[in-house]
Write a structure and sequence with these properties.
Layout lengths: L1 E5 L2 E4 L4 E8 L8 E6 L6 E6 L6 E3 L7 E6 L4 E6 L8 E7 L4 E2 L3 E6 L1
């Protein structure tokens, strides 16, 4: 199985980025998906979760109202729309299928002040 993230980059505070994760090698539509992030010197933290069916979503308090997770089961992708970015959002962002313990390689997001 593979999870490949894309869409990271450098953006100014208040800007937006859209991350995408392409999944392959498993029945994507059957599994919950998550985005995590890890900042330098900090533990990896859960950012957003989306259910397999029905698209129920949950967010970390720090990103509620700014980030939106979505999925396209026809394309086997899960996206993270990030708006009103802050310097504290700087981290490597990872896509995960937690039930299967699958992880992507990560994509760097850097927010300048």
């Amino acid at each position: 199985a593979h999870l490949v993230e894309s869409g990271g980059g450098l953006v100014q505070s208040g800007g937006s980025l859209r991350l995408s994760c392409a999944a392959s090698g498993f029945t994507f539509s059957r599994y919950n998906m998550r985005w995590y992030r890890q900042a330098p010197g900090k533990e990896r933290e859960l950012v957003a979760h989306i259910g397999a069916i029905g698209g129920i979503t949950n967010y970390a308090d720090s990103v509620k109202g700014r980030f939106t997770i979505s999925r396209d089961n026809a394309k086997n992708t899960v996206d993270l729309q990030m708006d009103n970015l802050k310097p504290d959002d700087t981290a490597v962002y990872y896509c995960s299928a937690p039930t299967l313990s699958y992880w992507g390689q990560g994509t760097q997001v850097t927010v300048s002040s």
